[in-house]
Amino acid sequence: MDTQQLAQAPHDRLAAYLGKDLEQVNALIRARMASEHAPRIPEVTAHLIEAGGKRIRPMLVLAATHLCNYQGARHHHLAATVEFIHTATLLHDDVVDESQQRRGRATANLLWDNKSSVLVGDYLFARAFQLMVECGSLRVLDILSNASATIAEGEVLQLSTAQNIDTTEDQYLRVIRGKTAALFSAATEAGAVLAGAPEDHVQALFSYGDALGVSFQIVDDYLDYGGAGDAIGKNIGDDFRERKVTLPVIRAIAQADSEERAFWARVIGKGVQNDGDFAHARALMTRHGTLESTRREALAWSDRAKAAIALMPDHDIRDMLSDLADYVVARLY
Amino acid sequence: MDTQQLAQAPHDRLAAYLGKDLEQVNALIRARMASEHAPRIPEVTAHLIEAGGKRIRPMLVLAATHLCNYQGARHHHLAATVEFIHTATLLHDDVVDESQQRRGRATANLLWDNKSSVLVGDYLFARAFQLMVECGSLRVLDILSNASATIAEGEVLQLSTAQNIDTTEDQYLRVIRGKTAALFSAATEAGAVLAGAPEDHVQALFSYGDALGVSFQIVDDYLDYGGAGDAIGKNIGDDFRERKVTLPVIRAIAQADSEERAFWARVIGKGVQNDGDFAHARALMTRHGTLESTRREALAWSDRAKAAIALMPDHDIRDMLSDLADYVVARLY
């Protein structure tokens, strides 16, 4: 590996390694998002799919199938499937969150309307299942239908945990599995199953995807309180203003005395926030070591991802996936 | 068949015949709409599922499997699948249409919120696919994923045909197939496939479900202009006020002179409606024989449904399905 390669982010190295496959996946995505009769569908889909997402989920599928020496031709279908499921959930998320921006562009619900986002999302979800059926594996279908249920359940759970200061760490973990880890782990597990990998490799790839996704989401939630602001590409304090009950908040509340608890009940539970409240929240988190323990939690999940993938045979892709688990937590430093 | 049975509506006779199976389907629906972690899910689902729908789609599945002498135990899963897909589309429809009432009760989007309706719909759709995977047939999965895509595509198409006076009969047919016929025909076709029926029986049951659904929807659209009002359980003129371009409108526009075309462009295209416009629309439809030709179209589809089912072997259920095709158009008289 030369210096230039080392300097590249691991997902860019993966993209370079999987280049030809990714092109075919993109061609398949474009072909399948077409609708002869309802031109609104490809318009809305293209707006989101061509906006330059990293295609991390299709890459996880392709990485898993390569790592398991898959010789067939259905991995592109599986990769397109997970991207469609992801895109469908983004369309619905933006309706649910009333979002205005995604990937630096106006959201579909703003450019068209909520109706189009809901229905085009449904269409993409159905298209995903069609592609999956073409993979010809009931076990792959089982994995992805379970992941879809976990995603939706996590989203509904999030509706009731938001603004609820009694949210537990177990509930938080369910929410972030639905948000990120369920589709990551389904991508890597289904890739291994499609390749006919032995059970211990299937399990290793499942655990890798799950731990990578959980780690990624905890880092995101850490940075909203512990980050430096503009360097992280999102506004620090957004979660606080939106009254999300994330891990740093849950752990700060767990250690709160009665006065602190009244503070959290006011700013998160009731949503009454004044100048200086966000700084006070951060100060409480520092006092109780909450930010540091959240950071350690993210690192522990990253370590689990690396340990899981270490069980796989020696392979360039294995090393890139391991580096990806490091990269995800590099934002913590 | 005694007099009492003859007096019953065919779907009530079907429900009586399939009683034990329907109970098991209802038990399965209740079990699978549960969510251990997000209680909002069964609350929203129960509101709609327990509201006393006729379970016509699960009955079509069970009727098809019985008619094809199915001996297995997965027909309940298939029947629950189609009811879940149907319920998911109702939840999303009510968000898209901003509906306030469904089956005589306040809609979920009104009682909870749009977010819950979107996400619980997604959850039920995922649950439907899980149930389908348990049926263990890739061909059944293929049929139902295709139907799901047709449903969503029809809904998106409807967004662009609404208020568009250039809508063609072909587009209209696609919209109503998405709205009703696609899931009817998927229910009967998938039932036959699950039962391992010969191809001509699979095709017959597909055609029956398709024609029954198309007929049903054309009758609905006829009654909105040609009906007698309160006898039909919906307000006459609703489609006109909502500027829907249904078959009676398409055929009236096809025969319009330039003055009449300007009328349709104003009331449907621009949505400028004054007192007396609805009566004038009905008068134009009578003048051009549009209502009569719409009525004949519905009857022709009902006949197609009966012709398709006539190919099946002699069976009580075959006769009830045939009667159901008559019953659907009986509202025309």
Automatic annotation (TrEMBL), chains A, B:
GO terms for biological process: isoprenoid biosynthetic process. It holds the Pfam family polyprenyl_synt. The keyword Ribonucleoprotein does not apply. Keywords: Magnesium, Metal-binding, Transferase. Its cofactor is Mg(2+). It catalyses: 5 isopentenyl diphosphate + (2E,6E)-farnesyl diphosphate = all-trans-octaprenyl diphosphate + 5 diphosphate. Its EC number is 2.5.1.90. InterPro entries: Isoprenoid_synthase_dom_sf, Polyprenyl_synt, Polyprenyl_synt_CS. One of its GO terms (molecular function) is metal ion binding. PANTHER family: ALL TRANS-POLYPRENYL-DIPHOSPHATE SYNTHASE PDSS1, GERANYLGERANYL PYROPHOSPHATE SYNTHASE. Supplies octaprenyl diphosphate, the precursor for the side chain of the isoprenoid quinones ubiquinone and menaquinone. Belongs to the FPP/GGPP synthase family. This is Octaprenyl diphosphate synthase. It comes from Roseinatronobacter thiooxidans.
